[in-house]
Amino acid sequence: MAVKKSAPPAADLVNHIAFVVDRSGSMRRIKAQVVRVFNNQLDTVQRNAKSAGQKTFLSTFMFHSTVDKPRHLTTPVESVPKLALKDFKLGGSTALLDAVGTAITRLQKAKGATNKNTSFLVIVITDGHENASSTYKKSLKGLIAQAQKTGRWSLAFLVPPGSQNTLTRFGIPKGNVTVWNATATGAKVMDEKLSAGLSTFYAARASGKKSVTSFFTTDMSKVDVKTLSALKDLSKGFARWTVDKERSIRDFVNAKLQASPAMRKKLGAAYEPGRGFYELTKPETVQPKKNIAILDKKTKAIFGGDQARHVLGMPAGANVKVKPGNHLTYSIFVESTSNNRKLVRGTTLLYQQ
């Protein structure tokens, strides 16, 4: 019988993270916001590396019509300074393919790059479409395939609307591509997506994974079942109801309570905000104060609290953009503090007893 290998000790894990950032002229209108996002994500990487006990090196590549000399190359993340606004100079076109190719090629030469416990994460941020590359225009697809074949490389892209299909044709998993709009609001959304994605990456590494294919989605296929099943089962603390038609959470719960004297006696006479958990069916921004629950549809077990957030790679203390992905035999639920949350017919509502 094959014995499943346990995850390596955290001290043995090495991560190389590279930010590949567009500094073409079209980024000018959100220059300050992009600098803020970069610095926030530097904090996120530093915080995750420290709490996970995983040695992390950071590289930063910026590009426009050409690719700049790296600002940092395989530098210990704790030694990387914040980006100053004056150092983020904008202008030129978008040599996106050359930037990605350069980042991969340079990181492949990093010390210990072939070590089995060393993983690579390349995060690409651009607001435009490729229009200036020459060096890697024909070879990038093969270069990406070669890197991903090792099982130790993850590439994640934040791109403008309409670019997703181009990247999936390069072999980038759909869960590692997301869109954003080059506006102040779009930059805020990007910030949230990156924080969640980085937490997903570090959680995956801690569980023994060497790469991620769901950087921007909740992908239960990548969750260690043993880790999840080790959490406390909270199912006895919830009533579980199927939503019969679209209506507000308050109206639905009140109808359930009014239909059953026993239920009213047990749960109260009327709906109370914060006790209901609706099923995730579309992208949602989840505030840090809202709890998460995971339902195992096979065993009917329910797992919740900060532990459930951690399993899903969701950072604590920050807004997180959660996008439904591959949930397999699980359902994900989000706490509702509203009276008017519209429930989707056919979904399940969990209500705390």
Q: Structural class of the helix and strand makeup?
A: alpha/beta
Strand count, sense and barrel status of the largest sheet are: 6 strands, mixed
Q: Major sheet: order of its strands?
A: 3-2-1-4-5-6
Q: How many domains?
A: 2
N-to-C span:
43 Å
Q: What is the string of helix and strand elements?
A: EHEEHEHEHEHHEEHHEEEEHEEEE
Unreliable parts: none
Number of strands: 16
Q: Class of the largest domain, according to the CATH hierarchy?
A: Alpha Beta
CATH topology of the largest domain: Rossmann fold
Give the second-level CATH assignment, the architecture of the largest domain. Answer: 3-Layer(aba) Sandwich
Percent range of helical residues: 25-40%
Beta-strand content estimate: 15-25%
Q: State the CATH superfamily name of the largest domain.
A: von Willebrand factor, type A domain
Give the mean pLDDT.
89
